């Protein structure tokens, strides 16, 4: 089977006015891209490498691979994660992962939460806004957390993104608008334990991997209990990793059942395909709620890098090569190849 890998390489920040310093945080470094390539090569031989830039369409049109392992995040626009899948749909080239619609919905955190709420799936109460208005504090209860609407990889989620009063709320909304030129998502902050759940497969083959818990007690004093940009990219490094994840999480049987079932319901509600990582947090009464879905999950191979999906896979007894190719297998079965 002729297989290709589509990706976005993390680059130096261009000298363009107005781009935030974390602009390329969602893209992958060359080591991760090469690790995925090598995992694909182990099963399929040579892999065609296609960077998701303006030349990608013509490369895909000429090469016509039998399958594409898609890890392209896109660079520009609110639907950037949908761009390569839309091209491949047009060219009738099978690819791993979700459809353009699902990727667009999940990147727009507000729309994803609307779908979840319509299906009766627990998610924190929220407001999407461009500007501060006094009725936000009337609709939601403090503390709240303020995030950019269309970002992943903790972009725009800073240590001070949790707010406890209207003055801080106004300031964080203005900061999101100023730095990211997009609306802010404001959620009621859930104060309980936080988990992330890796899922693989489709239909009756869909399964959850061992639950990962984020242990905020490992963060330095004064750092808020959220997986912020500082916690993910500044305080936690391969050379000095934080002891922030435990997998499998130490949860009792009822809580494990509740978290797994909530994750499966969210996966199906957004029509996710092949794989996804879903972030879940408990409210003050210990009830789980979906924070967000990540249908293009990060997969850093190095165990010293705190990458949740590979950590869950290792806990399930899978090698990195088996993880990558299990995603391909799920897509092949879905396309009936």
Structure description:
With 337 residues, the protein is α+β, with helices and mostly antiparallel strands. It has three domains: 3-97, Rossmann fold, CATH 3.40.50; 125-188, ATP-grasp fold, A domain (Dna Ligase, domain 1), CATH 3.30.1490.20; 194-335, ATP-grasp fold, B domain (D-amino Acid Aminotransferase, Chain A, domain 1). 35% of the residues lie in helices and 18% in strands. The protein is built from eleven helices and 13 strands. The chain has helices at 30-44, 56-63, 83-91, 100-107, 109-118, 135-139, 166-180, 229-234, 253-269, 308-315, 320-335, and strands at residues 3-7, 47-51, 67-70, 126-129, 144-148, 162-163, 184-188, 194-200, 207-208, 212-214, 245-246, 275-282, 288-294. Strands 8, 9, 10, 11, 12 and 13 form a six-stranded antiparallel sheet that branches. A four-stranded antiparallel sheet has the order 4-7-5-6, with helices on both faces. The chain has a three-stranded parallel sheet with strand order 2-1-3, sandwiched between helices. Strand 8 and strand 9 (207-208) form a beta hairpin. Helix 2 packs parallel to helix 3. The chain is globular, with a radius of gyration of 19 Å. The N and C termini lie close together (10 Å). The model has no long low-confidence stretch (mean pLDDT 92).
């Amino acid at each position: 089977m002729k297989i290709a890998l589509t990706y976005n390489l993390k680059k130096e920040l261009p000298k363009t006015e107005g781009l935030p310093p974390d602009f390329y945080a969602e893209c992958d470094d060359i080591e991760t891209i090469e690790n995925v390539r090598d995992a694909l090569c182990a099963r399929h031989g040579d892999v065609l490498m296609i960077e998701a830039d303006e030349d990608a369409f013509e490369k895909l049109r000429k090469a016509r691979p039998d399958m594409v392992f898609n890890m392209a995040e896109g660079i520009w626009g609110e639907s950037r994660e949908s761009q390569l899948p839309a091209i491949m749909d047009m060219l009738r080239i099978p690819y791993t992962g979700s459809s353009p619609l699902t990727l667009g919905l999940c990147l727009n955190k507000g729309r994803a939460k609307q779908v979840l709420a319509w299906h009766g799936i627990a998610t924190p109460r929220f407001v999407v806004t461009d500007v501060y208005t006094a009725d936000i504090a009337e609709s939601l209860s403090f503390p709240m957390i303020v995030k950019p609407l269309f970002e992943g990889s903790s972009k725009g989620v800073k240590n001070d993104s949790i707010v406890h009063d209207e003055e801080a709320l106004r300031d964080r909304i203005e900061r999101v608008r100023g730095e990211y030129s997009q609306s802010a998502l404001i959620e009621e902050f859930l104060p309980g334990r936080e988990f992330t759940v890796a899922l693989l497969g489709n239909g009756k083959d869909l399964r959850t991997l061992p639950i990962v818990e984020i242990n905020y007690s490992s963060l330095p004093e004064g750092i808020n209990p959220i997986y912020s940009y500082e916690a993910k990219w500044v305080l936690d490094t391969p050379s000095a990793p934080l002891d922030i994840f435990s997998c499998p999480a130490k949860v009792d049987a009822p809580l494990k059942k509740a978290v797994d079932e909530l994750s499966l319901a969210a996966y199906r509600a957004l029509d996710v395909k092949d794989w996804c990582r879903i972030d879940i947090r408990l409210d003050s009464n210990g009830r789980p709620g979906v924070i967000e879905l990540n249908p293009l999950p990060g997969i850093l191979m190095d165990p010293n890098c705190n990458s949740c999906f590979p950590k869950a896979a290792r806990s399930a007894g899978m090698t990195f090569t088996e993880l990558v190719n299990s995603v391909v297998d799920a897509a092949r079965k879905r396309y009936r190849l």
